[in-house]
Amino acid sequence: MERKKTQIDDVDRGIYDIKNEFTYKYKTDKGLTPEIIMEISREKNEPQWMTDFRLKSLEIYNSKPIPTWGVDLSELDMDNIITYIRPNSKMQHSWDDVPDDIKNTFELLGLPQAERESLAGVGAQYDSEVVYHNIRKELVDQGIVYTDMETALVKYEDIVKEYFMKLVPPSDHKFAALHGAVWSGGSFVYVPEGVDVDIPLQSYFRLNAPGAGQFEHTLIIVEKGARLHFIEGCSAPKYKVNNLHAGCVELFVKENASLRYSTIENWSKNMYNLNTKRAVVDKNGTIEWISGSFGSKVSMLYPMSILRGEGARSEFTGISFASTGQHLDTGTKVVHAAPYTTSTVNSKSISKDGGYAFYRGLLKVAPDAHHCKASISCESLMLDNKSKSDTLPIIQLGNDEIDVGHEAKIGRISDEAIFYLMSRGISEEEAKAMIVRGFVEPITKELPLEYAVELNNLINIELEGTIG
Amino acid sequence: MENKLLSINNLKVNIEDKEILKGLNLEINKGEIHIIMGPNGGGKSTLAYSLMGHPQYKIIDGEIVLEGKSINELTADKRAKNGIFLSFQYPEEIPGVTVEEFLRTAKTSVSGEVQKIMAFKKLLKEKMIQLEMKEEYAARYLNLGFSGGEKKKNEILQMSILEPKLAILDETDSGLDVDAIRIVADGVNKFIDESRAILVITHYNKLLEYIKPDYVHILIDGKIIKTGGIELAEEIDKNGYENIKAKFSN
Amino acid sequence: MITWRRIGLKDYVFPDIKEYTKEYLKNINNIPVDVKLNKITECANNAENHKFDISEVPALGKEFTSFVESSYNSGISIYLPQNIKLKSPIRLEFNMDDKNPTVVDHNIIIAEPNSEVTIVIDYNSDNKTKTFHNGFTKVYAKEDSIVNIVKIQRINDHSYNFDSNIALVKERAIVNWISIELGSSISGSNYSSILQDMASESNLHSIYLGDGTRKMDLGYTMIHKGPKSLSTIETKGVLKDKSKKIFRGDLNFKRGARHSKGSEEEYVILLDPTVKSDSIPALLCDEDDVEGDHAVSAGKIDESKLFYLMSRGLSEKESKKLIVEASFKPIIEKIPYEDLQKVISHEVERRLING
Predict the structure, then answer these.
(1) 3-class SS at B100?
(2) Same domain, A283 and A419
(3) Which chain B residues are closer than 8 Å to A414 by Cβ?
């Protein structure tokens, strides 16, 4: 039988691994000081309140200890991370104006093509700054705003000031404080009342520089009765030094509005992905998270839904795939803060080749949030016994008028299932891949076709290493 | 002989160090229908799994020869490519994989020809109509939430799509109502021709009202102790296995 | 001083431990002579004679277990020789009152290969004395032995209860825990089994009832080390008034525990809007070739069942009581004494109907 047995480090991650030469227009020194923060703020011509906000955040950052639970962050040396790198390009509205090396990277990642075929708008960030942003004219005509955060801070300062880091305050945890101090780039989306955006918007975050951090801020406001699907993609080539991603996503879903937030994260395996995502949902609104975590060395990622309006709804569908050298500590938090709210969590994890997949979840029902419904399902698939898979759901219930169910399963691919498929002429590798694809099918089916294909490709890349 | 499809010579098979098949011999020619009957625990399912190459069923001695070549060392997928098919007594449920996707992959693999999506859809639909299966089953996850009867029909559907040379039906008739047995038997009768053979494993007679076997074998305690025609099945139906067993013990 | 926020202990200091003067060993008839059954206060160094390593399980924590080991005033040491199977259970009853307000029991159970024993311990008290119980029970179940431990906690609502239980389970041995948690104002109870070898097995069945302002912390751990080891955690509870419960169940599959199976289930009925129910069912896995699952369900009492019973003329309270009892019954029936089964049913009824 032909076997492909290679170390995962040698697996060809193809387009994701293409490195460009590290060039930049401006970068800060390594480490973090008030001077560096003020420099970033000055570079960006920010209003004073934002400079103050950054400095305040830095203070909080310095006052908080590194989290000691969950994952090991001892190798992450903030003094060695470059927090701000302005690429050799201004933000453009046409791909033709983006420098060739950067444009080629995004071409290979398929972004311009996806924009032509299936997206209503695209933002592309390269290191610390957004290099491309564009939105279809008909959306602009409906009053939709989709731009980079820097532009938003100038053009929509009042809105930004009202919402920026209100949902995830810098005091939340150490890396939220870090984000508040050094944030750069990201996307701003505003969907006016009643507007239904039926084609997705996508922002893509690419970190090319070695030893750097990316701290993009995504702020989305979906007004009453409006609807949006936002897709976030991220990747980076692999370097020997550690990179850090501490982005922040704040989503405001107003009455009767609905937002679907999809992420396919494929950071390189030298990345610390310490990202904070949070949504607050008003009366009868809906937030749907689709989350695929494949990359990074260490991830701590727990998208949170706060259901604060009666009848608000959240749905989380997540898959994480941990392979050699990866510790993915992911999950979701749901807070039922109002009556008649419902939530569904469907999480799947795969671990192989020594990878460590950890599901950490919180379900909290406030005392006055009666008539809530919540269901959680966690399934873990282990592909070998070098790997590790843990599930830790915390369920806190504060009243009796609720209906809560939780289920979790852990295990391996059944030998009988493999034999059954093989008895139909399918090779062992393909049988296993088929079962793994079937396992994650509930997630792929939620994604637009191109992204489902990308997700399946990522699974195939990961499986090619050692299955057989 | 070019007509010879399968020979099993003195086959001994262990499961976890316990000998289940104790020197079994069987010859099957193209165009024939064979029935294997026997009490529970006699080794019927072991024979089926051993022919298909289940890794837990270890061949200790003897040989399985398909069209002149030993298949002892082949894994299940290679055996399928060589034309063996097993209809499972308890088909596995595979979440997330649709019947259509699965069968197209399998057909591609077995036939070595890429199956075009539209053409395959048409073929699948035809076969499903023959088996009185609802079209929506093509989009359902493989065996997931299927009733016992639906699973068995799905096995026969796979057989008719993959067109093996030797089909082994392991208790395909058990748990089926009269209508389902008729449909399954119909599928089997449509399948059999001069180039193929069928080995039916069963422990009762219902299927035999619809399928006319060429040979009936009695498998007890790991060996075929008697071979005859349909009259042997009738005798067992009347008298059970005890009489035959008594005749052959000691 | 102990601070344990989850159940509202802050800078807590253990009370002075008095001698426990009542007879707590209830039936010691029919015990074969070669079974060594002693009160732990009457035989020195029992624990030393049978060192077995259970240090990897923290139970309620070192503060609690070390205290028992140094300050015990009661408990038994039992040594079962090979092949001895005790037909009738060994029964202990602690009845605390103003003269005997503290029980610190230290129990050591050594079951040699192929032996079998059932031990039933009933902790109760009078209605008014503020009593204190802190116990530590250690079970060493050797090859093919069966040890059943039944614990009933029905101490009054002014008292504190702490209980740690650990079993080391060898090849093909089975340790069954039954825990009935009905009383105390603060109760911390912990059961852990280390499934050490091939086909080691442990099952835990528990019921709990929270009423008034009781705070309960229930911690159950199954550590699978041996291949083909088996474990079950089945917990059924009901919470009313302002009671609070934290349930933590860990199924921990260590590398090498191939073909092991573990399942964990908590089912809780919430009767009042003022209750608090936390559940943390953890599944930890270093071995791929295992089957582990856990399930938690929580919610109000089944409305359609309630309606059905009420339509037959039962009051709401009676109907609720009936539904809760039906849920508890299979576990209560595992207790080998009818009188205790009745006492428990009465206690459940009293606490459900009153208030």
Answers:
(1) helix
(2) no
(3) 92
Q: What is the pTM of this model?
A: 0.84
Mean predicted confidence (pLDDT) in C257-268: 94
Q: Could you state, in order of their start, the residue ranges of all structural domains in chain C?
A: 2-353
Shared-domain flag, residues A465 and A424: yes
Q: Report the amino acid identity of residue B181.
A: I
One domain for residues A53 and A120: yes
Task: Assess whether A291 and A155 both reside in one domain.
Answer: yes
Could you list the residue range(s) of the whole structural domain that residue A458 is in?
A: 414-468
For residues B154 and B99, the answer to whether their CB atoms sit within 8 Å is: yes
Question: What chain A residue is nearest to B51 in terms of C-alpha separation?
Answer: A423
A414, A415, A426 ranked by CB distance to B77: nearest: A426
Q: How far apart are the first and last CA of chain B?
A: 35
Give CA–CA dist C316/C308, Å, rounded.
11
Tell me how far apart the alpha carbons of residues C354 and A197 are, in angstroms, rounded to a whole number.
Answer: 57
A421–B102 C-beta distance less than 8 A: yes
Q: Which amino acid, residue C243?
A: S
User: Which chain A residue has the Cα nearest residue C269?
Assistant: A400
C237 contacts on A by Cβ (under 8 Å):
none
Cα A48 vs. chain centroid, distance in angstroms?
A: 30
| pLDDT grade for A13, boundaries at 50, 70 and 90 | low
How many Å apart are CA B135 and CA C270, to the nearest integer?
45
Spatial distance between the Cα atoms of A286 and A387, rounded to a whole number of angstroms: 36
C278/A contact by beta carbon, under 8 A: yes
User: In 3-state terms, what secondary structure has residue C122?
Assistant: strand
For residue A438, give the chain B residue with the closest CA.
Answer: B96
Contacts of C246 (CB under 8 A, 6+ apart): C6, C7, C216, C217, C218, C278, C279, C280
User: At CB < 8 Å, which residues of chain A contact C?
Assistant: 367, 370, 378, 380, 382-385, 387-412
Compute the nearest-CA separation of A353 from chain B (Å): 23
Q: A251 and A199, same structural domain?
A: yes
State how far residue A444 is from chain B, nearest Cα, in angstroms: 10
Reference A227, options A202, A250, A249, A201; nearest CA is A201
Locate the chain A residue with the closest alpha carbon to C286: A388
Q: Which H or E run includes A271?
A: strand A271-281
> Does the distance separating the beta carbons of B80 and A422 come in below 8 Å?
yes
The DSSP bridge pattern shows strands C201-210 and C174-181 to be parallel
Partners of A406 on chain C (C-beta within 8 Å) are 279, 281, 294-297
Nearest by CB to A382, which of C277, C280, C285?
C285
Domains and CATH numbers, chain B: 4-248 (3.40.50.300)
- Residue C29 burial (CB count, 10 A): 5
Residue A9 belongs to some domain of the structure? no
Name residue A146's beta-bridge partners: A189
Place of tokens 């240090």: C55
What's the pLDDT at C44? 61
- Asked if C275's CB is within 8 angstroms of A399's CB, the reply is yes
- Beta pairing partners, B85: B167
Q: For an interface test with A, which of C246, C285, C290, C293 has the most A Cβ atoms less than 10 Å from its Cβ?
A: C285
CA distance C194 to C309: 43
Residues A382 and A449 in one domain: no
How many folded domains does chain A comprise?
2
DSSP letter for C6, please: G
Residues in chain B: 250
Q: What is the pLDDT of residues C73-132, one digit of tens each?
A: 999 999 999 999 998 899 999 999 999 999 999 999 999 999 999 999 999 999 999 999
Separation of alpha carbons A383 and A221, rounded Å = 41
How confident is the model over C225-235, as pLDDT tens digits?
999 999 999 99
The secondary structure of residue B137, as a DSSP letter, is G
Q: In angstroms, what CA-CA distances link B214 with B197, B207, C142? A: 10, 14, 59
Looking at per-residue pLDDT, the higher value among C44 and B116 belongs to B116
